[in-house]
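Morning F.,

Quick status update on the modeling queue. The single chain you submitted on Monday has been processed. Sequence for confirmation:
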Amino acid sequence: MKKNIFYTMLFAAAMFTLASCGDDESEGKSRITYYPTIELKGDDPYLVAKGSTYQDPGYESIMGGQDVSDKVTVTGIPNTAQSGDYTVSYTTVKNDDGFDASAKRRVIVADASDPIEGLYWIDPSSYRLRQGAKKAYGAAYPLVVMNNGDGTYSVDDLLGGWYYYGSGYGKNYAMAATISVADDGTVTLLKSAVPGWGDAHEDFSGTFDAATGTFEMTTVYAAMDFVQTWVKQ
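Structure tokens below.
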């Protein structure tokens, strides 16, 4: 009986010691961490006229119920003197545990005097024709056309965002291309490539209407027809 009492007292002392050590180690430390958040305001992608002054559409960062937007770091401000496809990055202040948040905005700088260069949106009624079956894009995806300065234009995705946005495969599965546009609006495809699959278009036809800023194109790829209408923003 005495032995049982002794062991019981010894166990209780050990537990007290462990509890005391735990209290000392956690003293002054919070069990709650407030993670910063960031929300972009305005358009994304955001169209800016070449030669203008860049004005960020804005953002809001909250941490622990407090507005900490003034502590956000913004990098990658576009050079509006030069047409291009830019990325502006936003990074919040770190919390006490070293965590931050980030966001990115795509900014398109385009020459407003160029009837072809600019930001386009695919008409959601555009469709893919596969083995006689039509499937509409169903959403307006952004497409970018840039003047190469040599009479040709670069197109970021001649498939209209079908795999890039629609399937969520990303930029590596967009069909980057180079085109030329004749005075009568005929579009000629000079080259194309889909890096993710290592192949290119099989056939192409297209027109451009400068009055409405509209491309009408059919790209044949992997035995499928991508019949598209792009409308300039």
